[in-house]
Queue: 2 jobs
Job 1
Amino acid sequence: METAKLLKTIADSVLNMDEEAAAKYVKQALEAGIDPMVIINEGLIAGMNQAGKLFEENEYFVPELLLCSDAMYAGLNVVTPHIKREENLYYGSVVIGVVEGDTHDIGKNLVKVMLEASGFRVYDLGRNVPAKTFVEKVKETRADLLCLSTLMTTTMGEMKKVIDLLEEEKIRGNVKVLVGGGPVSSSFARSIGADGYGENAAGAVRVAKEVLGIPQTRAS
Amino acid sequence: MALSEKTRLINVLEGKPVDRVPVICPGGMMNMAVLEVMMATGYAWPKAHLYPKDMAMLSLGVRDLAEIENVGVPFCMTVEAEAMGAQIDIGTETTEPRVASYPIQQIEEWEKLPSLTENHYRVSVVLEAISILKERCPETPVIGNITGPISLATSLIEPMVFFRALRRKPKVALDFLDFVTENLIVFARAMLKAGADIINIADPSGTGEILGPETFSEAVVPYLNKITEAIHASSGYAMVHICGRLSPVLPELKKLKAPVLSIDAVTALRKVKENLPEKVIMGNVSTYLLGKADPQKVAKAAKMSIKQGAGILAPACGISPLTPLENIRAMARVVKGDYGDC
């Protein structure tokens, strides 16, 4: 198969949630001598971007997006050993988690999937994460971005607590903060001093790139 | 003569005429326990999750102090999960109990899960609280709250594993949902037997927004209907609360057999009512407004919900325990005409 066609087949395998096909065609692409970074960007990530677009258009929902990401990872597992300098893979690093008091992490997991798929290195702290843990992880990883999520009205206050603690520790200027989740809105984000608000997983990636000054790629 | 709180709400559920719209906070995920009432009554979380009298008195306290027209228990979504093997963190005065660890990791393991029984301590606390409420306030509707099937399933196994299984191993996932539903029916029947008038089913993880219309109609609607039918067969009334944007699943919602659909603030009530004229729509005063705005703004939002066709006035979702009492009271007083005509 020619390069362009092979890359499209890889992207389609991701879009069609087919793990086996994704792994198989990535292997073929490597054997054909295609640059691993091209396989990732123009094959796997292109497919995931299309899945994200369908998610935004209400064609795909959470289960579909999860299976697409499984297929993407199946391909990534084949291709990553062939990359020399792993660092070059990433736009930046992100610490993400659900704030303390909340254990709903569906939204957070989707944002994580989409961020990884878009080329960010993601440190996932899970759910029910105390403010202190967020701040420590940001320090440790020198993260460019901190993403806070909550599904509950009851725990929205925790988001401000994290931002206040970043201020206290004098590292607020080093990291951009995005917030998201069911009850959160852009006006709430502004009111607590966050840098941005992600309405959904794909939206979060857009805003992440925006606040970090990274050019948007087309979801073609 | 004014109707009793109970007659009014039941009349709405039966489609009979009423003097005015009732106002309620059902309980469960949509619970009404706020810190001010805990302070005023001395019945507080987390103790009120564990002692029947505390549970009942806290709910009664909200009815009296916030002037809402029902009582309802429990105040969380972890009772069924704990009875079926999950480990629970009981929370604090202002944070709800939550699942700390799932009893199963793989979907195939569901057959190992214990069944919910009336004797489980968390279940028995709720049942006893219902009996106390029934006795204390016979003219107030008592609402028993259960967790919806998808939300319970995803309290027993990591949600991501479950959602994948819905697509990859649908037979196993649906068998698991059947099992979960049977257990919920046991709980709902026991609540009705203990004196509950109405069962409210809230399934925040089982929304059309998360699952999409196809999965919603296969994995949500039939199970909610099974529970609804069991409730009706035991002479109870069923309410269903669906979170999130409803537009992707409006046609599917028509298939729900419960007479009442409670909705979130993100969906315009008028649009839902237009699409489901035969259903009583309950809602949908923004919980954010209830938590942060002043009573005037809350009253305005409440009047808007009624104007758009709400048959029962209620918060749009679970309210924060830090919600000011005066805001809930403002919502409650709107139906009584304190803020002018609706």
Job 2
Amino acid sequence: MKTLVVEDDLTSRIFLQEALAPWGEVHVAVDGREAVLAFARAQARGEPYDLVCLDILMPGTDGLAALKEIRRLEEETGSASAAKVLMTTVLGDKGNVMTAFREQCDGYLIKPFDQRKLVEQLAKCGVTAPSAQTR
Amino acid sequence: MAHEPEDDSTPDAPGGAAGRVLIVDDELSIRRHLVRGLVRRGYVCRAAESAAAARDQLAEEPFDILLTDVRMPGESGSELMRHVLQHHPEMAIVLMTGHDDNEVAREAIEAGAHGYLLKPFEVRQAAVTIEAAVERRRVLSALLAERGSLAAEVERSERSLAVLSEQQRAVLALIEDTFLLLDPRGLVLDANAAAARLVVPPRDTLVGGILGDLVCPGSREALLRHLATVANGEPGRCEVCFPRPDGEAIHELSSTRLPEGRLLAIGRNITERKRLEESLAVAKSAAEAADRAKSEFLANMSHEIRTPLNGVIGMTSLLLASELTPAQRKQAEVVQRSGKSLLALINDILDFSKIEAHKLELESIDFDPRATLAEVTELLALDAREKGLELSCAIAPTVPARLRGDPGRLRQVLLNLGKNAVKFTAAGHVELEATLVSERDGRCEVRFEVRDEGIGIPAAKLASLFSPFTQLDGSFTRRFGGSGLGLAISRQLVELMGGRIELTSTEGEGSRFWFTVSLERGREELEGRASAGHARSLRLLDWPRAPHVLVVEDDETSRLVAVELLKMLGCTTAAAADGPAAIEALAAARYDLVLMDCQLPGLDGFEVTRRIRAGSAGALDPQVPIVAMTARAMRGDRAEGLAAGMNDYLTKPVESEALAEVLAQLLGASASGAPRGARAGQESVLAWDDLLARVMGNRALAQRLVDTFLADMPGQLEALRCAIAAGALREAGERAHRIRGAAANVGGNAMLELARRIELASTAADRGRLDELLPELETELERLREAAASQGGPT
């Protein structure tokens, strides 16, 4: 599984990078604009991301705008399988998550991050334990 | 001498239709070469070795083309050309020059030649040049013919202009504006005296001239376009320049087409006006630059003053937290208070100068006026409680759920009025109210009112109250502090929002401030961000069924507040006034959640919780989530509550946002999540055990996260400080939000809470609060650093 972590905060990037490492390659982006660029590049190379963890509230292009753009890119290129997208948000900002669901995200993680919850959310998206995946 | 040897000239060739050429060159080889080549191309050729010979030839027979060398012994080619131009104007002339005579050739063209050839050349080139020269001559003579016809037209129009009355002519002669009658090509058919002065030196008449030839070259194209447009029947204006000895004169022409097709143009000299406009623009940009410099200076100064002041206030709060003698404490408190007033003053002055300089731009975003009013009430609640005042807030149901405008500035005005009301009221009520005055074409006029039962304002002072730097009198400043700018700023903000502000007051009974603002109705869908964190957005959460919540609270007002908040969040409620009533209620029905006051009379909240959890109380669900409500200052309550089996806690007064968070956490999260109990006993500075649980016991990762956080945070705080100092409150809010996420991740709960409040205060544009919170956040970071050091790697 190939993952793109989009977070403007360093601790969040490190947490998700470490937690997702057992599933395979993890790339990071620090804002929505970078995320969309990375996503488009990966698509163009024919190695699209399987999972995107996307912070909702970032300066500039925020997570919701990036999500919209990512879904648009997929539609445009007629990707066979859509990337799973987990939105991340700080406790208390749930209203954003509801908006995100309308924009077709697959689940959400609330900060502070919890590895168990991450595993739960991955399972909901149909991603099984890392042992079954190629490293 | 008139004839060259026969191979040099040819008799009339069969294809002589191309034209008759006279070739003049002193070199035989060139003559021969040209004759041969041109004859093959259908020309009839004669050759001459000198200009004199050529003249003889010309006298003898007609030619179409003269092809002559420039440098020849005796008479030159140029002289020959002048002769031909004069006596045989129907001939096309092509000059041949040496390679280095390029300039000579150009001069020749200007003197009237129709083409030139640079030696050496090939016959093919010569033929092409000759052809082009013939064409050029044809075009020129057509143009000449046209000039002739133009002159005829002028004559005709002069006759037709005779129809102008003497009176009309007299007027035209007197007016300063230029009057021109033109044909569509710009030929001047008639002009008045002012028009004659358009050109230098002035002409008796412009009639017969082409207007396009009289204007500066830069204006020609615009003029021709203008004339073409007008000739098409569209009247219009055009600025054109006429050359003057001292520069250019700019005229504005207004033209229209007359019924018979001619154009009438009235011109006015606008040179002076243009010069004034330019100097005005220069003066304006200079003034703007000075203004910008002033604003920058103010922003810098404010930063320079705030930074050390933040240090003073922060350090004083640390000092106040330490052991002090009563006298020292009093002195430190004075320092603290003085620092805070100074900060508030600086903030006011900055806002005021921004508005005065028209630097203040209002936002236009969708917002929920109820949430705005609720936030203001929350922010006022602390001071009101401290003074024992009753604070209430009402918003009429007719006020739309979403408005479009600047919620931050609206908050600022409400806070300002609200703070004054609380400040000047010793006992009694402070009330906030919002009503809809009118709605027309999607614009709503909303009226906000703040009433107090304070000292009131003497009638004589009412008029000047909204002027800057006005306070009732010196004794007020001494008693209540403040810059005297608050109401002036409020008035300006309200006026910027298209409304007005007024007050009525009775001395000794209280004051009533009200203002209106004109706002658009919000668009249908709120942007996600605009609603972030507000109770309103939580209502979007689809509860599978409305959660049923039991409120246990002895104080009637607090109970009512909790019940109303819960209803707003989509819950159904029941209430109990004491411990035994709560136990009875839980034994009778199932609840999804219990909100429990800690200081209940008799059986307190902790004991009630212990009995419920132990199962001895006969509750239908002993594991029902219980959330404590504790007074803000009671730190110990929190730990005791968690130890007693409570799931979470809220500080009083209960805020809608915090309540929404807890509800979402306890009722929205899946049952299999990490037990909330894991947070029990955690240190609020650094919840290490909680962090360890979240990384599934990976100590190295936990340590790395904390280290990264500690390394990253000073920069983040500095950036936050800069954003606040620069007044970039939106950015400050974003930065606080980022810090909030990071703090949450490492379990820095105290920092998390402070960052949350900073984010809230940024949205509320509450400068004073930001300046208070920032030093606290810095202090908390240092405490977290110490806590991490004592945690000290693997334990």
